[in-house]
Amino acid sequence: MKNCWQTIKKPILLLAPMAGYTDSAFRIVCKNQGANLLMTELISADAIAHFVGKKQVTSNKIQTNPTYKLMEFQKEEMPIIVQLFGKHPEKFAIAAKWIEENLSPAGIDINMGCPAKKVIASNHGATLLRDQARGVEVVKAVRVATKLPLSVKTRLGWERDDEILEFGPKLIDAGVDALIIHGRTYKDGFANVSRWENIYALKSKIQNLNVKIIGNGDIKNQTDIMERIGNLDGVAIGRATVGNPFIFNPDFLSLPEKEKMEIIKKTIIEHAKLAFEIKGEKGIIELRKHLLAYFKGHPRAKNLRKSFVTVKSLSDIRKALIAMYAIDIL
Ligand SMILES: Cc1cc2nc3c(=O)[nH]c(=O)nc-3n(C[C@H](O)[C@H](O)[C@H](O)COP(=O)(O)O)c2cc1C
Prior knowledge:
globular, alpha/beta, single chain, 9-stranded parallel beta sheet, 14% strand, binds flavin mononucleotide, TIM Barrel, 9 strands
């Protein structure tokens, strides 16, 4: 299989993983709007190593396992990367090998940026920025275990913006094909603005190597994509995609209002159908937060809020859309 990091032409437009938001249905919606690379939300390498290590694990048992459910993706999501988190190199290796053999995604990503309290408390995610030696060991172990393209999604540093200039080259030496860098430190959490200067500096420093560098943080529209990309190979966009997958579509903003509205309505229906096909009623319930985001700022949204947060079926969604746009669109 071709290496996705080498075959996608600049700009790589990655839908940044967001646990609880970027499920299969939303990923497909974003791809249809122009995202050219997708990633699952973070999945525990320990949990995968645990279930694949069990003797006599039936395929039925695997398929109902909650961790497996998070890893599952549809064919049309390719190229999609499975993201793992953890701290034990040997468990990452078991997980990566199993994923390669059973799911064949376009790549594996290692999370070294998540600042969530429970992730940090278990020495996972962004703690690998503090324990760089362990981070490097994890990459080496996965590099040996699988031929799949390998990336690390990380931040500028644990507490300083320039740590990535030292850590990045170590990860590259250990065998990554790409680094996705959020322009904040662990200490920032999501506070302060993202700072991309050291992401550009890292790319300049390693420009003679064939390693892709993707910038991430606070991209809000197409102008930001163009202004921020600079010498980088691409950008990853997270929060601004919720309610606005059209951010990936360079032509969307210049369309006449009526056409835009048609695309929004069609996309919401497409999203709802996919959510229902893939997850059934649970998919529709999980879609509620997306519906609120799609309609944010719309003059009728306030009065219709209750109907969005109680949808249980495709027909409820159709009714909410008709009320929203006051015309029969279907
Ligand atoms: C609700 C939420 C969930 C997230 N989940 C993940 C995750 O599973 N894996 C990951 O690497 N980053 C995760 N992130 C971080 C985003 O991928 C991204 O790095 C961050 O939001 C900054 O980009 P943005 O400003 O475009 O949103 C999450 C962010 C949010 C807001």
